[in-house]
Amino acid sequence: MDLHPIFRNNRDIELALRQAMFKAARSGETIMEIIPGKGSGKLKKRVLAFLNQPHIKKLYERFETDPTNDGRIVVHFRS
C-alpha cells in the first residue's frame, strides 16, 4: 500500500490504512507492505502510531521496518 498519493490528508491516511488492514486480515493475507516513503519521517511515525493502536494490534502478529529501505513497513498477519 503506497501512501504517497494521500500523504497530506490525515483522515484519508487513517481510512486507507484501516480499510487495507481489515481487508488483508479478512482475506487471509500473510503480509502487507506499507510504503510511507523516506521523506521527513512524519508519515512513517503516523503509520507506526496507527499500527500501535490496541484495536489494530489485534489484527496482526508483528510488524517490522525494512532494514534496507527505511521507507517501507512490513506487517505480518496471524495465520
Automatic annotation (TrEMBL):
Stored Gene3D superfamilies:
3.30.1370.110
PROSITE patterns documented for this protein: SMR
Q: Which InterPro entries match?
A: Smr_dom, Smr_dom_sf
Smr domain: from which residue to which, for each copy? 1-78
Matching entries from Pfam families are given as: Smr (PF01713)
Q: What is this protein's name?
A: Smr/MutS family protein
